[in-house]
Amino acid sequence: MKLAEIKRILKEKETIEFELPDGSLVPSHFHVTEIGSVEKKFIDCGGTFREEYKASFQLWEANDYDHRLHPEKLISIIELSEKILKLDENSEIEVEYQESTIGKYDLEFNGERFLLVNKFTTCLAKDQCGIPAESSEKPKKSLKNLTPVETKSCKPGSGCC
Questions:
Q1: CA-based torsion, 27, 33, 36, 39: positive or negative
Q2: pTM, entire model
Q3: By CB count within 10 A, which of 70, 86, 94, 131 is most buried?
Q4: DSSP state of 25
């Protein structure tokens, strides 16, 4: 999700809810403790230089059960961050949230609440470092091209049972 999209959605919402990948909700008294600009420059295992730029939201919960972050307040924090940090409204959002360790999540919206979506690592240079392409799907066969296989059926009195 991009900054422009979250602002558009927040303008239509009365409350903010974040759902974790296991279906549980981030407690409603969470804080957005920071919005940052994250720049990552790296070289992949194939020797290619790469750059990533993201907006980072950090969610945190404390014993402040009376606190509720309202959509208009979060919009103002995002807009201030865009101005001061020079964040592009097309920046992808990455969300940090503390569980047993700090987790990093992608952000989506299901029409009701924001979803924290698990991120996964991958090799970015599979073609250069000799890792074969994997297919996670079984090969698909068209049923119209299948020929029937003759089977011997077991009939009463045939001696097969």
A1: negative
A2: 0.75
A3: 94
A4: B
